[in-house]
Amino acid sequence: NTTGNTLDVAIRKDGFFVVETPNGQRYTRNGRFETDNQGQLVNQQGFPVLTGADVPLVFAPEDTDISIARDGTVSTNNGELGQIKLVKFEKAQNLQKEAGGLLNTNDAPVNVDDPVIIQGALEGSNVQPILELSKMIETHRAFDSVRSFIDREDQRQKKMIQQLSPRVGA
């Protein structure tokens, strides 16, 4: 989704941005960034966004014409400042959600070889509410149908047991 905000960035392929929190590095795909009063590029919670050198990206007060290249390299009228760090994980299913949309894992991150970042855009939701609601209704109906079948089968077995049990005792 295009926002027009110079500091908003979307990841086109695999990968996560890296931010520094009081509890260590955390990961996010949310590229809604801004600058804090020290000129650091930060996420919405105020955590610094890290570069490939694991240091915060810092803008000088005189920096203008901010440009973020497709590989994450940040430049201004005063030159190149650094490259936004993008990492990936071999087992993304091990990522654990934390507050503020951040992710954490004990697995070691791997740098993304060929990052693709889009400046002035944010990643949209991959959920389509109407479609998902339709799927949920369809699943609920299928569940009800199976449950009804199981109930009928249970009743049939009980009836058969009742009919056969007097004969067994005779």
Can you walk through the features of this model?
Residues 10-75 form the Flagellar hook protein FlgE/F/G-like D1 domain. Belongs to the flagella basal body rod proteins family. This protein is of the alpha+beta class and 170 residues long. The protein contains one helix and 13 strands. The chain has one helix at 129-169, and strands at 9-11, 16-21, 24-28, 34-35, 41-42, 67-68, 73-76, 79-83, 86-88, 96-97, 103-104, 110-111, 117-119. A hairpin with a 2-residue loop joins strand 7 and strand 8. The termini are far apart.
SSE map:
Layout: E1 9-11, E2 16-21, E3 24-28, E4 34-35, E5 41-42, E6 67-68, E7 73-76, E8 79-83, E9 86-88, E10 96-97, E11 103-104, E12 110-111, E13 117-119, H1 129-169
Antiparallel strand pairs: 1-13, 2-3, 2-9, 4-5, 6-7, 7-8, 9-12, 10-11
GO biological process, one term: bacterial-type flagellum-dependent swarming motility
Family: Belongs to the flagella basal body rod proteins family.
InterPro entries: Flagellar_FlgE/F/G (IPR020013), Flg_bb/hook_C_dom (IPR010930), FlgE/F/G-like (IPR037925), LlgE_F_G-like_D1 (IPR053967)
What key attributes describe this structure?
170 residues, alpha+beta, 2 domains, 3-stranded antiparallel beta sheet, 24% helix, elongated, FlgE/F/G-like, LlgE_F_G-like_D1, Flg_bb/hook_C_dom
Number of strands: 13
Structural class: alpha+beta
Query: Could you list the spans in which at least 5 consecutive residues all have pLDDT below 50?
Result: none
Helix fraction by DSSP (H/I, runs of at least 4): 10-25%
Strand content: 15-25%
* Span of the ends, CA to CA: 77 Å
Spatial order of the strands in the main sheet?
Answer: 3-2-9-12
Pfam families: Flg_bbr_C (PF06429), LlgE_F_G_D1 (PF22692)
Domain Flagellar hook protein FlgE/F/G-like D1: 10-75
Domain Flagellar basal-body/hook protein C-terminal: 119-162
InterPro entries: Flagellar_FlgE/F/G (IPR020013), Flg_bb/hook_C_dom (IPR010930), FlgE/F/G-like (IPR037925), LlgE_F_G-like_D1 (IPR053967)
